[in-house]
Write a structure and sequence with these properties.
This is EF-hand domain-containing protein. Keywords: Motor protein, Muscle protein, Myosin, Repeat. This protein is elongated. By secondary structure, it is mainly α. The longest helix is centred in the first third of the chain and has 14 residues. The strands form two sheets. It has a two-stranded antiparallel sheet with strand order 1-2. The two termini are 27 Å apart.
């Protein structure tokens, strides 16, 4: 836990813009992500972040229980979980899927991404589609999950 506290303190200091030992609660989601966590927007909302900056501040002691709760959350999905989902779109059962279907999944299912976010993710992570519009989804997932 000492390593976690060090990571949290480092990220907290970055978001402590005025150096008073407090972070605006508006940045809870960003702060959690800076600590190498990947909470859903729904989970972040349970901590009650304000709609605007400057409404509520928190100290690192207020943030640590939030960090611990997100770290324990089992609802984040693993590489293996993602492979199982994308296998449903593998019509030829050869490890490929339509790039257009992946684009649809990212923009429509779960926590939908904005069109610009989808385009960035695909250009950064997805391999070139072949002449049939197919991509090997495993290489996309490996890059997405940091296994490449």
């Amino acid at each position: 836990m000492a390593k976690d506290q060090e990571k949290v303190k480092f990220a907290f200091d970055i978001y402590d813009f005025d150096g008073h030992g407090e972070v605006d609660m508006f940045y809870i989601g960003d702060l959690l992500r800076a600590c190498d966590l990947n909470p859903s927007e729904k989970l972040v909302a349970t901590f009650g972040p304000p709609d605007r900056k400057g409404q509520k501040m928190m100290k690192v002691a207020d943030f640590l229980p939030m960090y611990a709760a997100v770290k324990k959350d089992k609802n984040k999905g693993s590489y293996e979980d993602f492979v199982e989902v994308l296998k449903l779109y593998d019509k030829q059962e050869d490890g490929t899927m339509m790039l257009a279907e992946l684009e649809y999944i990212l923009s429509s299912l779960g926590e939908p991404m904005e069109k610009a976010q989808v385009q960035t993710a695909l250009s950064d992570l997805a391999p070139e589609e072949d002449e049939d519009g197919l991509i090997p989804y495993d290489s996309f997932l490996k890059k997405l999950c940091g296994k490449a």
